[in-house]
Specification:
With 144 residues, the protein is of the alpha+beta class. It has 2 helices and 5 strands; from the N terminus they run βαββββα. It starts with 14 loop residues before the first strand and ends with a helix.
């Protein structure tokens, strides 16, 4: 059996989003359900893309399709409260971007969970991989 990875420290992340926990986030066991973490990852990535002018939901081209996600849990969360979602770019490929994310209690240095999220960028119409525009690459490299 492999050793459990050591969580990344808060200062390894370059962008943060704050999300309020909702009553509906808790599951029958009294903690935030795993599917909610994936929604936070999706929200944080897309919020960052919108803020940087890289995501036009209605008409943008190219568009990012999620091809892989994953999450590792270190501690449980439960409503009420808020979390801070840290994001950094792990890799920028020709037509893909790999993000690493950390879920933090406000003010804490160690994450309660860490995840990854990979977009492959494709043409809006043909859904075929397309190289990232140079301006996107420059913007995303700031978060690497």
């Amino acid at each position: 059996m492999s050793k459990r990875p050591i969580p990344r420290h808060r200062n390894t992340y370059r962008h943060f989003s704050t999300v309020s926990l909702r009553w509906a986030d808790n599951d029958a066991y009294g903690h935030v359900n795993n599917v909610v973490y994936y929604a936070w990852f999706d929200t944080a990535v897309n919020e960052m893309l919108v803020e940087r002018g890289l995501l036009d939901i209605a008409a943008g081209d190219p568009i990012g399709l999620v091809v892989e996600t994953g999450c590792r849990y270190f501690d449980a969360l439960s409503y009420p409260g808020a979390v801070e979602v840290g994001l950094r770019i792990a890799n920028i490929g020709t037509s893909s971007v790999a993000y690493e994310l950390g879920i933090f209690r406000p003010g804490e240095e160690a994450p309660v969970a860490e995840g990854h999220f990979i977009h492959v960028y494709v043409g809006r119409e043909d859904r075929r991989p397309t190289p990232l525009p140079d301006s996107w690459r420059v913007s995303l490299e700031e978060l690497a």
